Amino acid sequence: AMKKVLTLVFVREPGRILLGMKKRGFGQGRWNGFGGKVEKGESITDGAKRELLEECGVTAKSLNEVGLINFEFVGDPVILEVHVFDTWDYMNSPVETEEMRPQWYGEKEVPFGEMWPDDEYWFPHMLNGKKFEAYYKFEGMDKILDSWIKEKTEQ
Ligand SMILES: CN1CCN(c2cc(NC3CC3)nc(N)n2)CC1
Fold first, then answer.
1. Contact present, 63 and 85 (Cβ < 8 Å)
2. Would you call 35 exposed, middle or buried from its count of C-beta atoms within 10 A (0-12, 13-18, 19+)?
3. I need a surface site. Which of 15, 67, 75, 85 has the fewest CB within 10 A?
4. Is 20 in the pocket of ligand 1 (CB under 6 A)?
């Protein structure tokens, strides 16, 4: 099947996480991290930093690999391979853009009811600093048919 490589970046402070309300396109109306497609000739990390800057004006000085998630959709041959990162080392306060409205949330107040359904399954691994791999098979945009998640010990 066809793979589409995408990025997802979360900006962190002790006890808090930055989320963005997606204002248009895929995932519109849901809170999420910042990310998008990886362009030709661009590393995944550089693509992640570019999207973070474009979507909320934050420049990540370094990124931590947090997880790798593959998403499959019933009836669609394209698999989304989402590389998840976080950063504690960044410049500039987040600003609203055409794409995203940023807002800080306490780690215990993450609005899972207004996010992609998979998030509540893998967020705890990210918040606990554990690297993970996961797979979610979706029917439509709201129903998870199958899934697995495993923690990765450092290689
Ligand atoms: C560029 N974006 C980054 C984030 N991304 C997703 C997807 C997702 N679930 C999949 C069923 C859609 N869940 C989160 N949290 N993010 C899709 C593509």
1. yes
2. buried
3. 75
4. no
Rounded to the nearest angstrom, the distance between the alpha carbon of 116 and the centre of ligand 1 is 7
Residue in 55, 100, 116, 149 to alter for ligand 1 test, most ligand atoms within 8 A of Cβ:
116
Phi, psi (degrees; rounded to nearest 5) at 139: -115, 110
Q: Closest residue (by CA) to atom 1 of ligand 1?
A: 36
Contact 89, 5 (CB under 8 A): no
- Tokens coding 5: 């490589």
d(CA 7, CA 14): 23
Cα 81 to middle of ligand 1, angstroms: 9
Percentage of the chain beyond pLDDT 90 is 97
Q: What are the start-end ranges of the H helices in the chain?
A: 44-56, 119-127
Amino acid occupying residue 144: I
Residue 155 binned pLDDT confidence (cut-offs 50, 70, 90): low
pTM for the structure as a whole? 0.98
Please say whether the beta carbons of 29 and 80 come within 8 A: no
